[in-house]
């Protein structure tokens, strides 16, 4: 599916971590890199693609499937008031922040990828509409859907996609569940890969909890066509992750990862910190509304070196994230294949 020398995929790390330089480094080392289109304008995605085109680097692009509004004004306003003190050190009025719902420029990004096709387009948070599938197929792209259960995998197969990303509960960042209010029971990556591959007979990319070469080998043996790595790339030279995020991954004060909706209103795995402690119990579901509410605070906190107000997305293998070139990570993970 990827035409790469190894079955390693650089996961699309949103929020600036997956730079064109990181995609290029993963691909040059024998893997296949994905650009995240989430949170970016179509113009910014086009600029990233143009930069990779100039070096002849093929890549995939990941899109967030739009979700219907899940939070009412009253619930949103209550949470905004509750976390208001967290914005005060940065001059932010969180209590008065507007409720914002958007579709992340969905139609414009589909149009961009039809006009400028990439080898693979992946989708997270749900199933793309049939019109988008047809348009991208005509453009020549292969299509992947992120799934967290066999039921989601079967629905994606019936849509006619080319492959699946089986995301286990160990994965860092947002859960790709199609139903955040009714998620499937947490399933580890290895059994999820095995079950999804058996149920669908489609190529499967394994995602979640990769800490070393043994994990890659075991996932391939379980039926994965490829293995996605994300957290282990966050501290590399080519990563665009903030210094605060990079440092936290190696800080012994952060002892575990947890699933939280406190930052963005959608379940996501990250390092357990004080913001999660204070607000997880009362945080509502509501993505992307809570993402927009807390985004300014998170950006300001990262710039100020305040990790307890930052979404420190990380998978369970985060202690194995090292500094140095991304090529070293690819080489290390594939050494025993």
From TrEMBL:
Recorded catalytic activity of this chain's protein: 3 propionate 3-nitronate + 3 O2 + H2O = 3 3-oxopropanoate + 2 nitrate + nitrite + H2O2 + 3 H(+)
Protein name according to UniProt: Propionate 3-nitronate monooxygenase
Region (Disordered): 167-187
GO BP terms, alphabetized: 'de novo' pyrimidine nucleobase biosynthetic process; response to toxic substance
Cofactor: FMN
InterPro entries associated with the record: Aldolase_TIM, Dihydroorotate_DH_CS, NMO
Organism: Micromonospora costi
UniProt KW keywords: Detoxification, Flavoprotein, FMN, Monooxygenase, Oxidoreductase
Pfam families found in the cross-reference section: NMO
Keyword Flavoprotein among UniProt keywords: yes
Family: Belongs to the nitronate monooxygenase family. NMO class I subfamily.
GO molecular function: nitronate monooxygenase activity; oxidoreductase activity, acting on the CH-CH group of donors
Domain of life: Bacteria
């Amino acid at each position: 599916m990827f035409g790469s020398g190894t079955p390693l995929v650089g996961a699309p790390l949103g929020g600036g971590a997956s730079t064109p330089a990181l995609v290029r480094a993963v691909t040059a080392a024998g893997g296949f890199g994905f650009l995240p289109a989430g949170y970016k304008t179509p113009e910014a995605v086009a600029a990233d693609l143009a930069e990779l085109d100039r070096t002849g680097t093929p890549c995939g692009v990941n899109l967030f499937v739009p979700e219907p509004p899940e939070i009412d004004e009253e619930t949103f306003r209550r949470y905004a008031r509750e976390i208001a003190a967290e914005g005060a050190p940065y001059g932010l009025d969180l209590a008065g922040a507007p409720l914002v719902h958007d579709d992340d420029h969905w139609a414009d990004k589909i149009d961009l990828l039809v006009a400028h096709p990439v080898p693979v387009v992946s989708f997270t948070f749900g199933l793309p509409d049939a019109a988008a599938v047809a348009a991208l197929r005509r453009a020549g792209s292969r299509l992947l859907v992120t799934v967290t259960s066999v039921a989601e995998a079967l629905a994606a197969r019936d849509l006619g996609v080319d492959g699946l990303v089986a995301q286990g509960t160990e994965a860092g960042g947002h859960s790709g569940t199609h139903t955040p209010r009714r998620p499937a029971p947490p399933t580890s990556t290895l059994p999820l890969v095995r079950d999804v591959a058996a149920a669908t007979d489609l190529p499967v990319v394994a995602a979640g909890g990769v800490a070393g070469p043994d994990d890659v080998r075991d996932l391939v043996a379980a039926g994965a066509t490829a293995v996605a790595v994300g957290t282990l790339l966050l501290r590399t030279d080519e990563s665009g992750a903030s210094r605060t995020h990079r440092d936290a991954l190696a800080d012994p004060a952060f002892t575990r990862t947890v699933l939280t909706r406190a930052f963005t209103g959608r379940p996501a795995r990250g390092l357990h910190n004080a913001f999660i402690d204070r607000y997880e119990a009362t945080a509502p579901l509501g993505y992307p509304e809570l993402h927009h509410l807390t985004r300014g605070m998170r950006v300001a906190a990262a710039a100020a070196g305040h990790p307890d107000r930052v979404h420190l997305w990380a998978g369970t293998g985060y202690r194995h994230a090292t500094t140095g070139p991304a090529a070293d990570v690819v080489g290390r993970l594939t050494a025993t294949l």
